[in-house]
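Example (one chain per record):
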Amino acid sequence: MKVLGIDCGSEITGFGVVEQHADGRLICIAAGAIRLPARAPLPAKLAKVFQELSEIIARHQPQTVAIEDVFYAANVKSALKLGHVRGVAMLAASSAHLEVAEYAPLAIKSSVVGYGRAEKSQIQVMVADLLHLKALPEPPDVADALAIAICHLHTAATLQRQHATFKHS
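Predicted structure:
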């Protein structure tokens, strides 16, 4: 299974494509950051996010997209900007006929680090370890996107095992 994780942000949107092989190994296929010019008007920023995510989806052909739920913003204006970016990320996924899974930050951190209140640096270290990366993913938004993809893969594997158990019971 191949998943595109997206860490939506109004300045930097991180992305990471992670594939899980049949033996359980996690492989980082692609990762990076979509940097949005601070002075650009919001519609131009949103168009850039949509265009780049659409290209990433076309290039890497993930089976699903996973994003983080909105949980907190410094203020209403920040929350609205983040909501716009999340909407565009969902639109890019749905335009490619992909399902979107949403995860709470606590669930993502627990799945990857084992602790729901983990710091960004801890997420970077664990993501690098789980994906056997030679360097920590930078900026932290990239590590967060990879963590979101890993969280989805862990969740999907758990649900698959539970479903198999229930079928045989």
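Caption: The two ends are 26 Å apart (CA to CA).
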